[in-house]
From TrEMBL:
<dbReference type="Pfam" id="PF00553">
    <property type="entry name" value="CBM_2"/>
</dbReference>
<feature type="domain" description="CBM2">
    <location>
        <begin position="170"/>
        <end position="279"/>
    </location>
</feature>
<dbReference type="InterPro" id="IPR029058">
    <property type="entry name" value="AB_hydrolase_fold"/>
</dbReference>
<protein>
    <submittedName>
        <fullName>Cellulase/cellobiase CelA1</fullName>
    </submittedName>
</protein>
<dbReference type="InterPro" id="IPR008965">
    <property type="entry name" value="CBM2/CBM3_carb-bd_dom_sf"/>
</dbReference>
<dbReference type="InterPro" id="IPR001919">
    <property type="entry name" value="CBD2"/>
</dbReference>
<dbReference type="InterPro" id="IPR012291">
    <property type="entry name" value="CBM2_carb-bd_dom_sf"/>
</dbReference>
Length: 279
């Protein structure tokens, strides 16, 4: 169920997902404060593919980028989230991904299992659905098949080629520290991964990295550091296990934050009062 929700709400974050014993995006929503939707659970909510697809599209108005692929598994004897939800998911995601509801490929990967693929015949088609005959809600999870469909078992080649220009003959000047800062952003938030390298000549015992977050950015949590305050001019300080920064060594930390449209990086960093190079 959560896979359907996440892929519908965050198409800019996920490439693909595998839903086991789920329901369509928007099916379980209630308006009376209840946490359980019996009509959805019992497979009594049916919609046209267009109606299901509109629920997903309206969850992120204006989004025009690629949509994640969907793999869904369901047992015909599901006693908790009834089997009709399987077909409704297929209707929804084929519509969202703009492919035909007529299977492009059908096979039997094992006894009692019927696999259909939509919009393609390969093992990473836009939509893949596995119906499991006689299987209840607590179905056996084929993790390897889900991992393969998502693409996590395939090595990823670097998208940026290595530089071909010769290295400069004179090293660029460096301060006593160097900071790397990488951002992974989505519509209302981002995560930042920060590295601090000691390029000086003495070990740092206890570090504090100061920088200013661009306007609209607010830290919500962090790891391998403590960050205060949550916005504006902030300072990240070490935690108990990573306070020592030997000469030539690097420590990393990260944080999650919200934003109001600006995901720019800080422009300057100081480590214990010393200005660091960036990059």
């Amino acid at each position: 169920m959560t896979t359907n929700v996440l892929l519908g709400l965050y198409p800019d974050v996920f490439v693909a997902g595998a839903a086991f014993s789920g329901v369509p995006f928007g099916c379980f929503a209630t308006t009376n404060g209840s946490e359980w939707n019996s009509d959805c659970a019992n497979g009594l909510i049916t919609k046209t593919p267009q109606q299901w697809g509109d629920l997903v599209r309206n969850a992120y108005p204006g989004y025009t980028g690629p949509r994640p692929r969907m793999q869904t598994w369901h047992g015909t004897n599901d006693e908790v989230l009834r089997y009709p939800n399987f077909g409704e998911q297929i209707k929804q995601w084929t519509n969202v991904l703009g492919v035909s509801q007529t299977p492009a490929y059908t096979d039997t990967p094992q006894s009692g299992y019927t696999r259909t693929r939509y919009g393609g015949t390969g093992d990473r088609a836009p939509v893949e659905a596995i119906s499991m005959s006689g299987v209840p809600h607590n179905l056996p999870v084929d993790a390897a098949a889900a991992i393969h469909f998502i693409g996590l078992d395939t090595p990823v080649s670097p998208t940026t080629p290595a530089p071909t220009t010769p290295a400069p003959t004179t090293p660029a000047p460096a301060g006593a520290c160097r900071v790397g800062y990488a951002v992974q952003a989505w519509n209302t938030g981002f995560t930042a991964s920060v590295s601090i390298s000691n390029t000086g000549t003495a070990t740092v015992n206890g570090w504090a990295l100061a920088f200013t977050l661009p306007s609209g950015q607010t830290v919500t949590n962090s790891w391998n550091s403590t960050i205060s305050p949550a916005t504006g001019a902030v300072t990240a300080t070490n935690v108990s296990h990573n306070g020592t920064l030997s000469v030539g060594a690097t420590q990393t930390f990260g944080f999650q934050a919200t934003h109001t449209g600006n995901t720019a990086k800080p422009t300057a960093f100081t480590l214990n009062g010393t200005t660091c190079t960036v990059g």
